[in-house]
Write the structure tokens for this entry.
Amino acid sequence: MMNFSEQIIALPPRLKRRYSILRTLLYATIIATVIVFGLRVLFPTLTFTFNFKTPSASKNNLLDPRDPLGSHRTNGKIETGGTLIADVGVIGSFARASSDITLEKASALPESLEFSLRRSYRGFLLPTGEPITSFPEASTYKIDGTYYTLTDGTLYPFVSDNAYLSRYPDDAALPETGEFLARYPVSENWLGFRIGSVISFADGVFLITSETEMRPVGSADIFLALGYRFEDVRPASEEEIGIYKRGKIFLLGAQHPDGTLFLDQDTGTYYLLWQGTKRPLTDARYRDFIMKQQTPISVSTQASEERARCTLEPSLFGRSFSCALTLALRPGNGNDYEIRIDGNNADIDINTLDVSFETEKSTRSMLTLLSQIKQRFLSRFGLGD
Amino acid sequence: METFKNYCLTRLAALRESGALSLAYALLAEALFLGYLGFAALFTVEMLLPTFITARLSLAKFFFILFLLSFALTGLGRFLDMSFEWKINKKSPALWLGLCWMLGILLVSLYKFPPLTIPVIIAGFFFTGFLFWNILFGEGE
């Protein structure tokens, strides 16, 4: 160890003792800092925030503040008895969560305010819609080796057999001739994969989110955290992905696209996400057809209904309220947390909402992190799976 | 303003007389030495696992603080008429350790770069280093 007082800087002998004490303090501070930093690395506390005064700021990482009916609530105002819901996606095993709310200066101070969390996949927390009782009807044809669907008097060609077979079984297409083709106008718009399909091209994995858009998945961790399996990824060609425009990157906390299949382990019910609802899929033929391509994402109704809650208490000074709760929610049924602020007995105007998740200080958490580090290190040099 | 300046100078002179500033100088030099070592360690981890450190700690801010403290140390050294000499010669283990570290960082950062651009980047890196060395340590040239 370098001794700066002797090797480099000549200190008078009377200061040597004081120097030794201060040096010991310096080293103690450095060691304490290293330990604290190490613990923060191994057991991080992840904080998510939303500033309602700058709702479009990129720093806001609490997703989609809204009321129970789905209307945006990005101004931070909650009427008496109203509810604010937001989401966050987070990977890890957490022991505690806490919430801090800062109210606007002009806001009334409520006597009661509740914070609660529940865990599942965002898509599975959507309201239940009408059951799907049959395979989607379509008039499909195979003409000169190309699949078409006839919609409103126009023939829409499929970009590939692969794309057609992601939507319909091979025997559903009636064989037709060029004469049939001449009878109808052929659209210039190609049809691609079933919405909700998971495809890959080069190093990327993409989710088909609409007839015209696909979104790249942010990372392998995110892909797995969304409940997908790499075995279900359908390789696609450049021509096939060429019909889609690339949407924004699919990150943790995003809602699964339409066409995603969930299996409720508690009731054995299959649900298909479609236009803002999860629809029970009761048609066995359609269900089996989708399941041949994609393993359903496992969920639990009971687990998704469990809530951890605490009452937000006012701080001594200022206009902030906070509370912490123990997260004893059942794991393994999604990595999205639905945050709910309600129970206020006065109209309130929130300035900022912060929600923190404390990683469980356990050997399991540490080993998980070390395993992730190892995986990242290997994939950095192209040695991973 | 003048009174305040005089007051500060008087206080600083008193602190210099008491030896407190020499003590601060020695401790600051040691803290900075450890700080730069820590920065090198964190930078190495960041190179091996991109965003692993920067997601938790801003290396730019850390380096900026080290840079500011280095200036403070230089200023304090001038005030106290104190300085220390870095005796770097070809036999110094610190030099070889530093070179090995630099080479390692270069290799890691240039991994998967097009082979033709690698010599250009390395040449540019060493040229910039040479210029900085001359600016910082060149004696009256």
About this structure: Chain A touches chain B at residues 2, 4-5, 8-9, 11-12, 14-15, 18-19, 22-23, 26, 30, 34, 37, 40-41, 44, 373, 376-377, 380-382 (CB under 8 Å). The longest strand of chain A covers residues 348-359. Chain A has a mean pLDDT of 90. The two ends of chain A are 42 Å apart (CA to CA).
